């Protein structure tokens, strides 16, 4: 072979840096260690996360619940702002708040981080957010994967996904089967946009309105970027506390599809749910999206959470205890509607918003 021949191919030359990946693992270890439960087994670095299933022996008939999700195009905001320790918090919220809807206690999560180029400090920052979210959710972070995909993603691009497992006693399973006419619909406030609808939000603010992330928005009291990156509220422990304090028939996590569509998922045939807009005033960001993009109200309500991140459906006599419990836990909540028999103007198994929002 000629002395001037090019060097042989290598993984590093193809864009994958194994040493950087190892450094990222070392940096994230201290955060993963904080997100454990007594049932966690083993340490970071194994091929699989371990969880002591003997904890399930205290259940008569344990049902395992599983959920998986990502955070959508909200990652673009994190990347542009170079703030990476909140997006993991969003990821945990999207997973565990789906688990708790059926009454399940989140037990553990695993994560998947796909990057264009491993930047160890950035990966560790993402994992820090995931670990902190797990602590807030009461679950363990038992494992994960960081993959470097040069050519698929740019050097500063990444995406995140996660999967979680929870458990609920079979005879305490919540859902549409428990919902009855006369039940009250309690709304729990969101912390902002959460992690849905960011394709619309980015289109409106950046493409149509021409705003920048560092633009100070008076009605927000902070920059546009700070508003858009606000972490998703994690409701799992609040919902579990609510189950212990009051009778709960169902929860509905308000994510993609908006208010009515997600509430309708727990309304059975023969019944109809009504939510009164006049019971709350959406935070300013929702009105700003509507105004800047001339977005119709119906489009906003089926895309964004409008200030409500979770619904609880409870019998009327459970309302005082439910509201008191949520207030004690610092979760703004209010009676937003009711469940009635279906009939003219009240379609079977559906939910509808009525009236106008409070000024």
Account of the 3D structure:
The protein has a six-stranded mixed β-sheet. The model has no long low-confidence stretch (mean pLDDT 90). α1 packs parallel to α4 (120-137) and α8 (258-264) crosses α10. α4 (120-137) links the parallel β4 and β5. By secondary structure, it is of the alpha+beta class. The chain is globular and about 85 Å long. It has helices spanning 18-34, 74-81, 87-99, 120-137, 198-208, 224-228, 236-245, 258-264, 284-293, 297-303, 319-328; strands at residues 40-41, 50-51, 62-70, 105-115, 140-148, 158-169, 184-189, 216-217, 222-223, 250-253, 271-276, 308-314, 333-341, 350-354. The chain has two domains: 16-42 and 61-169, 60s Ribosomal Protein L30, Chain: A (2-Layer Sandwich), CATH 3.30.1330; 176-354, PurM-like C-terminal domain (Phosphoribosyl-aminoimidazole Synthetase, Chain A, domain 2). The protein starts with 17 loop residues before the first helix and ends in a 5-residue tail after the last strand. Belongs to the AIR synthase family. One of its GO terms (cellular component) is cytosol. This is Phosphoribosylformylglycinamidine cyclo-ligase. Residues 340-359 are annotated as: Disordered. Its EC number is 6.3.3.1.
